[in-house]
TrEMBL record, chain A:
Keyword field: ATP-binding, Nucleotide-binding, Transport
Cross-referenced InterPro entries: AAA+_ATPase (IPR003593), ABC_transporter-like_ATP-bd (IPR003439), ABC_transporter-like_CS (IPR017871), ABC_transporter_ATP-bind (IPR050166), P-loop_NTPase (IPR027417)
Coiled-coil zones: none
Gene3D superfamilies xref list: P-loop containing nucleotide triphosphate hydrolases
SMART domains: AAA
Name recorded for this polypeptide: NitT/TauT family transport system ATP-binding protein
Protein's organism: Paenibacillus silagei
UniProtKB/TrEMBL annotation, chain B:
Top-rank taxon: Bacteria
Family the UniProt entry places it in: Belongs to the binding-protein-dependent transport system permease family.
Cross-referenced SUPFAM superfamilies: MetI-like
Species name: Paenibacillus silagei
Cleavable signal peptide: none
TM ranges: 35-53, 95-115, 136-169, 218-241, 248-270
Pfam families according to UniProt: BPD_transp_1
Keywords: Cell membrane, Membrane, Transmembrane, Transmembrane helix, Transport
Family annotation (CDD domains): TM_PBP2
Protein's recorded name: NitT/TauT family transport system permease protein
């Protein structure tokens, strides 16, 4: 079976007036159906750049990106992108925010609307459909953003630190919700995070990047037991702490070598 | 949580809160009426002093006229009907200038938002035109469009269009780029990006330029009328000045103040209406 995403020798340079800087260099990555991959690493290792390239928002300077074997040339409805904050449109109701993707891709029909409303209800947002974003708490808003992303039924979900702006308790709840939802739908996901324990708890594979220029340093396979357990409980499993320390040490090294 | 608080206590607490709220509202109301009272007496004192000053000879009656005479003049002009064509002319010019100025300015902003290249090309021209006192172009407009309605509206447009363009374009540019990123990640086209994000996000800014433009339009129209008109409130002022009828000048000024305020309030009302649904 073809991998959902494949990055081949991807290099990207940011060009500015004063200098051109290499964000990532010769990156190879392949993610298969149903996998949950986390990208971690010190700042400046090109995590967000990689996501933007996969999302089709950025064209890589060199190399190619294949989505289910096809070359990308811009954003595709198969890929959902969730940002650090909810970025709901304050002038739209919750329902209209959730339907934004369907509206933009011209797939807003009676049944797709009903499905999205059901999804809102599944996320515990029933009765909030006609409210405006300002009336909702941060956790609720991020759940609406999740529905907005899932409404177009993407096969691949890109998550750019979607939990980082939330309170700790809400963050843990949302990690569980996202992980459970994606597992149920069989959605492939790539998560960018700076929270190592989050990365280990939710993913099946953690990819550690090193900075200047961004490159893969090491890949950690997460044991089946931790992978199967909901994130909140996974943190208490034997082996979790050891794995955390291993990743932590490696990341320290990656950060230090750069100095 | 203390859900089982004694019912008696809850009742008295509600009463106490009610009382507090009533006091607060009463205090607020009292302040409001105080402001209103001082405000209106200030106006009254002004008119009384003006009247008394002119009658007692503290100020030159010929130059400054006095309120009863001014209001008498306004009343006579209203009754005889000679006021209406002038008022209609000026209000018409202002309304046309205001609406066209806002539309053209916003449209221009859309165009330069659409094409960053064009925006870069036009930038210095806009800066020059914006810094320039547009009223100085008045004579050129008269030569080009003839002394009359068109020249006056064009003078008004020259004042309102560029500033509208700059303000609206700026508000387009200051829309949170992440909101744009959201629609781009869904593969939105440039026109979708504009209609779904840029325009609704900067709508309040566009609407608030309306308020600025009302004032600007009045400046343009009155100046234009000073230069060319054969009717209109600006013309009445110039005419009154030339024949040394300052009662006419003063009454025109009062009418302008009243009508301009009414127009401004109308725009504020429209703004409220437009923004209340968000």
């Amino acid at each position: 079976m073809l991998p959902v995403v494949e990055l081949k020798e991807v290099t990207h340079a940011y060009l500015g007036d004063r200098e051109a800087s290499l964000a990532i260099e010769d990156l190879n990555l392949s993610v298969s159906q149903g996998e949950f991959v986390s990208l971690v690493g010190p700042s400046g290792c090109g995590k967000t750049t990689i996501l933007s390239i996969i999302a089709g928002l950025l064209q890589p300077s060199r190399g190619e990106v294949l989505l289910s074997g096809r070359k990308t040339a811009g954003p595709s409805p198969e890929v959902g992108y969730m940002l650090q904050q909810d970025y709901l449109f304050p002038w739209r109701t919750i329902e209209d925010n959730a339907l934004l993707g369907l509206e933009l891709t011209g797939r807003l029909t009676g049944s797709s609307r009903a499905k999205s409303l059901q999804l809102l209800a599944d996320m515990g947002l029933e009765g909030k459909e006609q409210a405006y974003p300002a009336q909702l708490s941060g956790g609720m808003r991020q759940r609406v953003a999740l529905v907005r992303t899932l409404a177009t039924d993407p096969g691949l979900l890109l998550l750019d630190e979607p939990f980082s702006a939330l309170d700790y308790q809400i963050k843990l709840q949302l990690e569980d919700l996202v992980s459970e939802t994606l597992m149920r739908r069989g959605t492939t996901a790539i998560l960018v995070t700076h929270d190592l324990s989050e990365a280990i708890a939710v993913s099946s594979r953690v990819i550690l990047l090193q900075p200047n220029p961004g490159r893969i340093r090491r890949i950690f396979e997460i044991p089946e037991a931790i992978r199967r357990t909901p994130p909140l409980y996974a943190r208490d499993l034997p082996g979790f702490a050891e794995l955390f320390h291993e990743v932590w040490k490696e990341m320290e090294l990656a950060g230090r070598e750069e100095m | 949580m203390n859900t089982e608080a004694q019912p008696r206590e809850t009742a008295s607490r509600a009463q106490w809160l009610e009382q507090k709220h009533a006091d607060y509202r009463k205090k607020k109301l009292r302040r409001k009426s105080q402001v209103l009272m001082v405000r209106s007496s200030l106006l009254l004192v002004f008119f009384v002093l003006w009247e008394a000053g002119a009658r007692m000879g503290w100020i030159d009656e010929l130059l400054f006229s006095y309120p009863t005479k001014v209001f008498g003049q306004i009343w006579d002009d209203m009754v005889s009907g000679s006021l209406w064509p002038h008022l209609g002319m000026t209000v018409g010019e202002t309304a046309v200038g205001f609406i066209l100025g806002t539309l053209i300015g916003t449209l221009l902003a859309v165009v330069i938002w659409w094409s960053p290249f064009l925006s870069a090309v036009l930038d210095p021209y806009m800066v020059v035109f914006n810094s320039m006192p547009k009223v100085a172009l008045g004579p050129i407009f008269i030569v080009m469009f003839g002394a009359g309605f068109t020249a006056i509206v064009i003078t008004t447009l020259s004042i309102t269009v560029i500033i509208t363009t700059l303000v609206v374009y700026n508000s387009f540019c200051s829309v949170d780029p992440n909101l744009v990123k959201v629609v781009r990640s869904f593969g939105a086209s440039k026109s979708q990006e504009f209609c779904k994000v840029i325009l609704p996000a900067s709508f309040p800014a566009v609407v608030s330029t309306l308020k600025v433009n009302v004032g600007m339009s009045w400046v343009g129209v009155i100046v234009g009328e000073f230069l060319v008109a054969k009717s209109g409130l600006g013309y009445l002022i110039i005419y009154g000045f030339q024949v040394f009828n300052f009662t006419l000048v003063m009454s025109s000024l009062l009418i302008i103040a009243a009508v301009a305020t009414a127009m401004y309030q109308l725009v504020v009302y429209v703004e409220k209406l437009l923004l209340s649904r968000r």
